[in-house]
């Protein structure tokens, strides 16, 4: 963007006022443990001591308002409960369009995570699709969910609607 | 508890870019119109309550501070509300409570967004560590929920298209609306690009600059108002977490509970029968049928039938968004207050060409976050 | 106007410092503690209101992720202000006036350490005329301090003495961040940070979270031995443009104080939200507080200054003096905006 230069006698309609702020964000206690495991190619969940539900990543239980210990190993296989095919470009986007962005309930978890679904044509994406994590090689992994490149179809038969409808 | 009335309503002409005005000019355009409608000046106001969505939309932190002079708030109490997309509604409710609690006689409430001064898609999808930027704005968030709704309700695919056309036709009757599409047709909506499958471009709301303002007053102050007031019969808010095990995001309980609390306060037992009009927060056309169910206007899984039967059209038995709604004007922070204000216009008989004949009781509705924050009110032409 | 009796019945805060927890992790134990101390069941809390600011963390909707940590299920009646938590407490007080509910939870959080705070605060200024010049928050406070010195409203020595007293008081506060024994004369030997302010005149950058439970009349008396009843609460705003204000005075504090009934009786303790030393002088003057009033026994914002939380902390700290039986009538003050633009005053009493 360049500074608009109005002609003489023309009202000034726009001005450029760039703001640049840098933030250093702490992952926090729960995410530190979770992302540490991600680097090792493992997914950690936590069980709420009150309602017994399993959360990925672990966190304070949203419904009970109590802390949980994040020490439950979770499978890197799961089911696509619902999804969206993105065909709109936006600032900061790194994926090639169109891409499929899905809500995935990992086996053993009670809440979905959100990630890319790849290895399938966008038009073949569907609810109930069984997927698994496609991990980046250990040397390329960082403390971010991008250490999983995407989720890809396992080739198993689709899950029945009734088995995941409570996650919608 | 004191009674509370809407004695003044004002809004800007909403547009993609109001570069004829600063933020100051934008909020003043709405505020001075509301004051004029109420026959008042800034001097008559006891307190100002302002709301808007995230500050990053304009790049100004807590902008109410620099707007204090422009809104005549100097020497008065000023509050700033932020409850995500529901903020316009929540802001009006905070203002109404200042009156109903007996604290103030006349409160000015304002909500705005000047989306053209920054990039909302960027503000909603910032580059943040730990997670890749996948979401692609609000559409990316809500598209999977719409897909889930369609699957659950077996709704025909063209319901979203119908709503998109109906709301744009209504907007033609609203001089303040942003989108004016006299040629709009189902074929045109169907042919528009699929941005976030299953959401097409014309099934989404626009990005607008705009503001809305209302003057709320006590019963005593309402007596000297030049125009007929709209009486606040009920207000309610409910919030629930964004994500939890077993959460129903399509028909969230917070919305159902909020509506139930609202109807109870207003003495409503059959909302579809008793309400004459409703302005509902529908940023993606598919949310009309979803909210019809959430608000109890239709049984679960059957909201789409109301749309297809024409019940939600102007002239139907439950007109939804006669103003053209969020689908036609979306200054995010103001969108909720516009719903509340349009409901007030309906029961005051001031809605002009989009007036619902003889409207006596109307609802304003707003929601925000991941379908998790709800704010609603019911206004009527009669004193409660 | 007759108002319903509302009291602070419990207060909990983090140990203010910079910390590695995220916002929800800071907040959750504090809310749990405040609710536990209140003796009121979560299900009996009819309204929740919070204060926070997205710009502190550089991301939108910070309050949304926090709602996932407070047990908002079944759905709760809730609201949020993009302001200091003291203003959230005001909203909760208004809500409780309606009489249909008897208890409210108020909380606030702020991780000021995530960005360069003085620079982040620039975005709070008029975006057309002032912010593009990039005057940071310390420079603006220095402008105000200079006006105070020029008007002979205070001296640099008095400012240093205020710093000494607050940091000394902070020693008795386990939650405070910056504390210790200093000599004013030594502090004056330090170089200026932004003249005429030295480092000791400025607040620390603190992360923090606080929760307070409010209860109405009979419920307050039932669950609490010495509830801190809110006898008056009011807030006022001034022009934003610094050129339109006499920076050495705080008319909004004065007016809010009058409306809150500060002068109706003797104040034992005053907790003033004065992040910079010279601001304590302005506020004392606006509120008519004499030397006999114990000002900031907690160490004030000079001891710990979590943004969006520090104002609510003043109410909590003042109320705690009543809950503990150490005071009978206290004053709490909260501020927002550059150079004390917006001010809230709350008077609390024991029965």
What does this structure look like?
- The complex is a heterotrimer of chains A (about 170), B (about 375) and C (about 350).
- Chain A has about 170 residues and is mainly beta.
- Helix content of chain A is about 10%, strand content about 30%.
- Chain A contains 2 helices and 8 strands.
- Chain A has a 5-stranded antiparallel β-sheet with strand order 6-5-4-7-8, with no helix packed on it. A 3-stranded antiparallel β-sheet of chain A has the order 2-1-3, covered by helices on one side.
- The longest helix of chain A is centred in the first third of the chain and has 11 residues, at about 30-40.
- The relative contact order of chain A is 0.16.
- The model of chain A has no long low-confidence stretch (mean pLDDT about 90).
- Chain B has a domain at about 5-120 and about 205-225: Peroxisomal Thiolase, Chain A, domain 1, CATH 3.40.47.10.
- Chain B is about 35% helix and about 20% strand.
- In chain B, a hairpin with a 1-residue loop joins strand 5 and strand 6 (about 200).
- Chain B is globular and about 55 Å long.
- Chain B starts with a strand and ends with a strand.
- Chain C has about 350 residues and is α/β, with parallel strands linked by helices.
- Chain C has 2 domains: about 5-115 and about 205-230, Peroxisomal Thiolase, Chain A, domain 1 (3-Layer(aba) Sandwich), CATH 3.40.47; about 115-205 and about 230-350, Thiolase/Chalcone synthase (Peroxisomal Thiolase, Chain A, domain 1, 3-Layer(aba) Sandwich), CATH 3.40.47.
- Chain C is about 35% helix and about 20% strand.
- Chain C is built from 12 helices and 12 strands.
- Chain C has helices at about 25-40, 60-65, 85-95, 115-120, 135-150, 155-170, 185, 215-225, 250-260, 275-285, 300-305, 310-325; strands at about 5-15, 45-50, 80, 105-110, 190-195, 195-200, 205-215, 230-235, 270, 295, 330-335, 340-350.
- In chain C, helix 3 packs across helix 12 (about 310-325), helix 6 (about 155-170) crosses helix 10 (about 275-285) and helix 9 packs across helix 10 (about 275-285).
- The radius of gyration of chain C is 19 Å and the shape is globular.
- At the B-C interface, strand 3, helix 2, strand 8 and helix 8 of B face helix 2, strand 3, helix 3, strand 8 and helix 9 of C.
- Strand 4 (about 75-85) of chain A pairs antiparallel with strand 5 (about 195) of chain B.
């Amino acid at each position: 963007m360049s500074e608009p230069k109005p002609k003489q006698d023309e009202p000034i309609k726009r001005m450029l006022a760039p703001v640049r702020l840098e933030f250093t964000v702490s992952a926090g206690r729960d995410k530190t443990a979770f992302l540490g495991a991600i680097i090792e190619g493992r997914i950690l969940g936590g069980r709420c001591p009150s309602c017994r539900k399993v959360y990925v990543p672990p966190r304070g239980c949203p419904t009970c308002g109590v802390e949980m210990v994040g020490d439950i190993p979770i499978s890197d296989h799961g089911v696509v409960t619902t999804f969206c095919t993105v065909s709109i470009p936006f600032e900061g986007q790194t994926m090639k369009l169109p891409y499929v962005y899905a809500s995935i309930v990992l086996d053993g978890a009670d809440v979905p995570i959100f990630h890319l679904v790849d290895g399938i044509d966008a038009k073949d994406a569907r609810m109930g699709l069984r997927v698994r994590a496609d991990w980046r090689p250990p040397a390329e992994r960082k403390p971010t969910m991008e250490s999983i490149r995407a989720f890809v179809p396992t080739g198993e038969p689709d899950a029945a609607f009734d088995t995941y409808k409570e996650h919608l | 508890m004191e009674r509370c009335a809407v004695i003044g309503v004002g809004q800007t002409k909403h547009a993609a870019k109001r570069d004829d005005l600063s933020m100051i000019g934008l909020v003043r355009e709405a505020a001075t119109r509301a004051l004029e409608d109420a026959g008042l000046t800034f001097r008559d106001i006891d307190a100002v309550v302002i709301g808007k969505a995230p500050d990053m939309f304009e790049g100004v932190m807590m902008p109410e501070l620099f707007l204090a002079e422009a809104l005549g708030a100097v020497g008065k109490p000023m509050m700033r509300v932020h409850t995500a997309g529901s903020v316009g509604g929540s802001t009006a409710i905070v203002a109404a409570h200042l009156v109903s609690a007996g604290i103030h006689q006349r409160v000015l409430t304002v909500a705005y967004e000047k989306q053209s001064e920054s990039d909302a898609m960027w503000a909603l999808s910032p580059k943040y560590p730990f997670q890749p930027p996948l979401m692609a704005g609000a559409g990316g968030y809500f598209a999977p929920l719409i897909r889930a709704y369609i699957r659950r309700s077996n709704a025909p695919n063209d319901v979203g298209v119908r709503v998109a056309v109906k709301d744009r036709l209504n907007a033609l009757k609203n001089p303040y609306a942003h989108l004016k599409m006299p040629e709009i047709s189902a074929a045109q909506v169907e042919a528009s690009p699929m941005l976030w499958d299953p959401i097409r471009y014309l099934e989404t709301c626009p990005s607008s600059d705009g503001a809305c303002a209302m003057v709320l007053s006590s019963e005593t102050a309402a007596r000297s108002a030049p125009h007929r007031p709209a009486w606040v019969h009920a207000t309610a808010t409910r919030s629930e977490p964004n994500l939890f095990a077993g959460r129903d995001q399509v028909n969230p309980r917070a919305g159902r509970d909020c509506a139930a609390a609202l109807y109870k306060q207003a003495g409503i037992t059959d909302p579809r029968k008793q309400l004459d009009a409703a302005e509902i927060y529908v940023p993606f056309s598919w949310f009309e049928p979803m909210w019809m169910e959430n608000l109890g206007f239709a049984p679960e899984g059957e909201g789409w039938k109301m749309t297809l039967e024409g019940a939600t059209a102007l002239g139907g038995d439950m007109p939804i968004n006669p103003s053209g709604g969020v689908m036609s004007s979306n200054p995010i922070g103001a969108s909720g207050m516009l719903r509340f204000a349009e409901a007030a216009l309906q029961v005051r008989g001031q809605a002009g060409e989009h007036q619902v004949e003889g409207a006596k009781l109307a609802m304003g509705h707003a929601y925000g976050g991941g379908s998790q924050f709800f704010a609603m009110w019911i206004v009527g032409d009669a004193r409660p | 106007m007759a108002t319903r009796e509302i009291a602070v019945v419990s207060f909990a805060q983090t140990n203010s410092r910079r910390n590695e927890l995220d916002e929800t992790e800071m907040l959750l134990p504090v809310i749990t503690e405040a609710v536990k101390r209140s003796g009121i069941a979560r299900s009996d809390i009819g309204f929740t209101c919070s204060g926070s600011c997205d710009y502190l963390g550089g991301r939108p909707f910070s309050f949304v992720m926090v709602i996932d940590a407070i047990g908002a299920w079944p759905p709760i009646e809730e609201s949020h202000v993009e302001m200091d938590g003291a203003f959230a407490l005001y909203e909760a007080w208004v809500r409780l006036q309606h009489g249909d509910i008897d208890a409210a939870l108020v909380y606030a959080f702020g991780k000021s350490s995530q960005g360069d705070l003085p620079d982040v605060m620039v975005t709070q200024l008029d975006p057309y005329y002032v912010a593009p010049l990039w005057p940071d928050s310390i420079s603006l406070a220095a402008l105000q301090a200079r006006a105070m010195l020029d008007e002979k409203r205070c001296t640099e020595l008095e400012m240093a003495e205020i710093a000494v007293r607050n940091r000394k008081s902070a020693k008795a506060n386990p939650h405070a961040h910056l504390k210790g024994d200093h000599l004013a004369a030594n502090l004056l030997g330090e170089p200026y940070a932004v003249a005429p302010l030295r480092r000791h005149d400025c607040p620390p950058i603190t992360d923090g979270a606080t929760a307070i439970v409010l209860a109405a009349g009979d419920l307050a008396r039932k669950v609490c031995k010495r509830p801190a009843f809110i006898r008056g609460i009011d807030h006022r705003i001034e022009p934003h443009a610094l050129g339109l204000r006499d920076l050495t005075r705080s008319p909004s504090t004065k007016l809010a104080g009058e409306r809150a009934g500060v002068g109706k009786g003797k104040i034992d303790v005053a907790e003033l939200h004065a992040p910079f030393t010279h601001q304590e002088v302005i506020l004392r003057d606006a509120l008519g507080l004499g030397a006999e009033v114990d000002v900031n026994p907690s160490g004030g914002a000079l001891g710990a200054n979590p943004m969006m939380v520090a104002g609510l902390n003043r109410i909590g700290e003042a109320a705690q003096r009543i809950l503990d039986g150490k005071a009978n009538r206290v004053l709490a003050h909260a501020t927002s905006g550059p150079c004390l633009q917006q001010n809230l005053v709350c008077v609390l009493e024991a029965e």
